[in-house]
Amino acid sequence: MRPIKNQLICILGPTAIGKTALAIQLAKHFETEIISADSRQFFKEMNIGTAVPSTEELAAAQHHFIQHISIEEQYSVGKFEQDADKKLKLLFKQQDKVFLVGGSGLYVKAVTEGLDEFPKVNEEIREKLNQELKEKGLAHLQVELKKVDLQTYNSIAVDNPKRVIRALSVYRASGKAYSSFLGQKKKDKNFTTLKIGLSAQREIIYSRIEQRVDIMMENGLLDEAKKLFPHRNLNALNTVGYKELFNYLEGNCTLVEAVSEIKKNTRRFAKRQLTWFKNQEEDVIWFDYQTPLETIIQQIEVKNTQAN
């Protein structure tokens, strides 16, 4: 069987399911490299709370887009698409296969399909939404989004004001739901894509999440949050694992309550990930998270044989 040229194999699934470990094993087997599409792991200053691969894991397989920018930098999904495209063109000159791993669905989509085009939004609309956020709170905007665009409400990080305002600004500018602009014509990419997903019963996912949070706390997440506390208003730090501890450091709750909130919000994040990937069901080959590596390798080779 001749190898398929320029194949991007995506490892998908909810947080804490084991994507990183599988991607490293597969990259070692196929002697290739890994593109990270986990937007929380882009930042140099964030380590424990984003579950960045360990030094040993990073040494086991070459990773790209892990802690490559600072929290002070503005970095968009559009810029990531451009950077990832450039990197993949270089890698495919040397490799037939490259692995992409991540739970950030929009960032995976940006690499595999390109971004959708949205209508231009008047700056006055954004200003008005930001004013409403300030005067009425995030919950008010969440209620509106849920009413006008349930699909987007169920798939984005609704506890992130920037994401909610983005979706509502598109709706108010066009009169059409943000989700209606998704899934437009795909860009031509210089590679083919194979998607592999890891799954488990929801109770198992939630249990793994809680164990991971406990391990993060044991490994010094609170100390990491203390170091980042002066920068807490940066958008990069408006994320699960840090904002809850910032709330504790501001004296608004106990540490036990903060850790409980991290677990709850991470479960919610996993639920949104599952919703996103469920919409991709037809394109993904799903495996139970305990499936032997040899079985997954065999399935990849079968798919490649069929493609030939």
From TrEMBL:
Substrate binds at T15, A16, I17, G18, K19, T20. The record marks S104, R126 as: Interaction with substrate tRNA. It holds the Pfam family IPPT. Transmembrane segments: none annotated. The keyword Ribonucleoprotein does not apply. Catalyzes the transfer of a dimethylallyl group onto the adenine at position 37 in tRNAs that read codons beginning with uridine, leading to the formation of N6-(dimethylallyl)adenosine (i(6)A). InterPro entries: Dimethylallyltransferase (IPR039657), IPT (IPR018022), P-loop_NTPase (IPR027417). It comes from the Bacteria. Belongs to the IPP transferase family. Gene3D superfamilies: 1.10.20.140, P-loop containing nucleotide triphosphate hydrolases. It catalyses: adenosine(37) in tRNA + dimethylallyl diphosphate = N(6)-dimethylallyladenosine(37) in tRNA + diphosphate. Its cofactor is Mg(2+). PANTHER family: TRNA DIMETHYLALLYLTRANSFERASE (PTHR11088). ATP binds at G13, P14, T15, A16, I17, G18, K19, T20. Monomer. Residues 38-41 are annotated as: Interaction with substrate tRNA. Its EC number is 2.5.1.75. This is tRNA dimethylallyltransferase. Keywords: ATP-binding, Magnesium, Nucleotide-binding, Transferase, tRNA processing.
